[in-house]
Amino acid sequence: MTTNNHMTSALFLLLGTLLILSQTCLGDDHHRNASLSIDMSSRRLIPNNFFGIFFEEINHAGVGGLWAELVSNRGFEAGGRHVPSMISPWGMIGDEKTISITTDMSSQFKTNPMALRMDVHCNPTTCPPGGVGTYNPGYWGMNIEEGKTYKVTFYVKSSGDLKAVLSLVGKNGTEVLAFKHIGADAEKMKKWTKIETTLTATGSDSKARLQLTTSQKGIIWLDQVSAMPTDTYKGHGFRKDLMKKLLNLKPRFLRFPGGCYVEGNTLANAFRWKETVGPWEERPGHLNDVWNYWSDDGLGYLEYLQLAEDLGAEPVWVINNGFGLLDSVDTPLIKPFVQEMLDSIEFARGNAKTSKWGSLRAKLGHPAPFSLKYIAIGNEDCGKPNYRENYVKFYNAVKKAYPDIKTISNCDASKKDLDHPADLYDYHNYTSPQGMLDNTRLFGKMSRNKPHAPKAFVSEYAVTDPTYKLDGTFKGALAEAAFLLSLEKNSDVVEMVSYAPLFMNQNDRKWSPDAIVFNSDKSYGIASYWVQTFFKESSGAVLLDSHLRIHAKDDNIYATAVKWTDKTEKKNYVTVKVVNFNHASANLDISLDGVDRKSIKLARQTVLTTDDLEGDNTFDNPTKVVPETSRFNSKDKKSLHDLVVEPFSFTAFDLVLN
Ligand SMILES: *[C@@H]1O[C@H](CO)[C@@H](O)[C@H](O)[C@H]1NC(C)=O
Ligand SMILES: *[C@@H]1O[C@H](CO)[C@@H](O)[C@H](O)[C@H]1NC(C)=O
Ligand SMILES: *[C@@H]1O[C@H](CO)[C@@H](O)[C@H](O)[C@H]1NC(C)=O
Questions:
Q1: pLDDT-based confidence at 554, cuts 50/70/90?
Q2: End-to-end CA distance of the chain
Q3: Whose CA is nearest to atom 8 of ligand 1?
Q4: 3-state secondary structure 596-648
Q5: Which residues on adjacent β-strands are paired with residue 176?
Q6: SUPFAM superfamilies, alphabetically (predicted)?
């Protein structure tokens, strides 16, 4: 991100023109003068885990998203335990005369009874060239890249000798990107056989498919088919390009796995952690019935903990506390659910040798305990009958066994004091740009006289369009920026914050906007994503007391100042962030009390703005609204007076301290 001066001045001209127009229309003031005085003696720290992310399995965020598995419905379980069952998105290669395909319950895995059965009617002379068989198009196409290697695993059985070809082919089924002959004699093939192989692509196609074909008459059964790129983040199965976008936010916590995904419409379809750990072939998978797609649970509880560790983030594990959206467990029957939670904590933190669940974790490849310091007791369940009664059972059990773990209640204490104990409480809000601006005043109004009151965890917030049709808007993102500044200021009562939702696969838009939009091979951040990047140094920084003076009637200017240390550069910075939610530009004076002016200089300035307030990034124009950074060297001698803050912009001024 560098500034293109030419473009910037063109933008200024354009903005200037718009400004004059809008001023005439709205009767807005000429530019504003604002001054920010900063008290450098301030000592209050923003909480260490202030800024994080919330990952929900929604919009194919994990399945067909961050989790790099390429095969969709890999165990043929998505269609339910029926014969025949729906095997979508698997397809048939050949016609009715040459092959028939169905399912049966012949799987060797008790937890995954379904398998695919192919009856091949043709032989080497009557089969079409290339043979007949089945293919899997993945999640709206597999991204296969030339030179990269894919690990393919599957289970197979046949009525006679097996002579087949495993291949990756382009989307039209003709261009072969990689292939291998698979063969074994009838004796071996009588029993289910696990085949593990790698395919190295000699071509690229972002909408490729995996296929197994044969020209041999007989019956072939197929089960538990996986294709994983070998090139994933640390080899842990996460898509690298999407991980890069997450790492760029420096998230200090990862709230997971939902959201309503935790609950399911009914408890029968809730996320049950014990069914998501262990060999992938034995995970039953489940219907994500709230967001309406099958989850094979390849991204299971252990993978979520690994994800948090890889991001350098504290896991915030949202447990199922006995609620579906439509049903719930009565308090007298809640004990097994409490135990399920305790077991999950032991799985994360327990001793690798001496504890039952800790030793399972070690066996599965992670002997070192994970950090787990936060348990959210449910998601948005406060209003439901039994919530409080059930909550207390979970709370007491956690505190007894793990007094250091912080618990999160679903009841919003910003409105009314809680009638039950909690360390934190969830605050969720999806609203209009104006609603988000109104919310900048919310946490300032909270009482400060109860030092032991639970702190707010703003675990879901976003400006949304009531019709959920839009990707997002720059105007909405700017209102979110103002809201985030208010949270920094009020971080004595707000301890953590995360935007929602994080991800959307372009092909499954259940909820928008979402911070990061992707398809099989590309991704972009919307303006709301880029707003969050301005806060990546906030966690653990010093919040400097600052006073903003504006000489105008409406005060749609918001600012904070934080002091932080760049550990690689070994330099101290004061970052002043300013939201100007006005049609007019502002001239800002920054003054710092308690520091010699000569020991401080403006090192760089980062601006996020566009003249299209209702616009946002798209696949066609993924960099329409991205931060632009200008760097200043000593020769520039930038004054801290009359700093121009553009109309409708979010600006960070980085001042370096000597
Ligand atoms: C802003 O300040 C300048 C002097 O620094 C003054 O000339 C100008 O009138 C002020 N503008 C407004 C709108 O107050
Ligand atoms: C299939 O794709 C390949 C490679 O893109 C192309 O050369 C070929 O013409 C295509 N065939 C059909 C039938 O579209
Ligand atoms: C969200 O914020 C808006 C604007 O302040 C407010 O009207 C609404 O009640 C809030 N919603 C919730 C669920 O707190």
A1: low
A2: 25
A3: 33
A4: CHHHEEEEEEEEEECCCCCCCCCCCCCCCCCCEEEECCHHHCCCCCCEEECCC
A5: 169
A6: (Trans)glycosidases, Galactose-binding domain-like, Glycosyl hydrolase domain
Q: Which of 373, 372, 353, 371 is nearest to 363 (CA)?
A: 353
HEC readout, 283-343: CCCEEECCCCEEECCCCCHHHHHHHHHHHCCEEEEEECCCECCCCECCHHHCHHHHHHHHH
Does the beta carbon of 486 sit less than 6 angstroms from any atom of ligand 3?
A: no
Contact 514, 502 (CB under 8 A): yes
Spatial neighbors of 176 by CB under 8 A, at least 6 apart, are: 167, 168, 169, 170, 203
- What does each C-alpha distance from 640 to 74, 113, 544, 600 come to in angstroms? 60, 69, 17, 10
Within its chain, how far is the Cα of 144 from the centroid?
A: 23
C-beta contacts of 397-400 below 8 A and 24+ residues apart: 397/338, 397/341, 397/342, 398/341, 398/342, 398/345
Give strand ranges (E) for 381-537: 406-409, 424-431, 455-463, 494-497, 503-505, 516-518, 523-525
> Exposure pattern of 142-152 as b/e (b: 16+ CB <10 Å)?
bbbbeeeebeb
Mean pLDDT on 515-531:
98
Kindly report whether the global pTM for this prediction surpasses the value 0.90. yes
Residue pair 259/318 in contact by the 8 Å Cβ criterion: yes
Pocket test for ligand 2, best of 175, 176, 209 (most atoms within 8 A of CB): 175
Q: Does ligand 2 have an atom closer than 6 angstroms to the CB of 447? A: no
- DSSP structure class, residue 357: H
pLDDT tens digit sequence for 285-323: 999 999 999 999 999 999 999 999 999 999 999 999 999
Mind giving me the DSSP string for 362-384? HHTT--SPPP--EEEE-SS-TTS
Kindly state the tokens that stand for 553: 């009637």
Q: Give the per-residue pLDDT at 551.
A: 74
Closest-lying ligand 1 atom to the alpha carbon of residue 551: 14
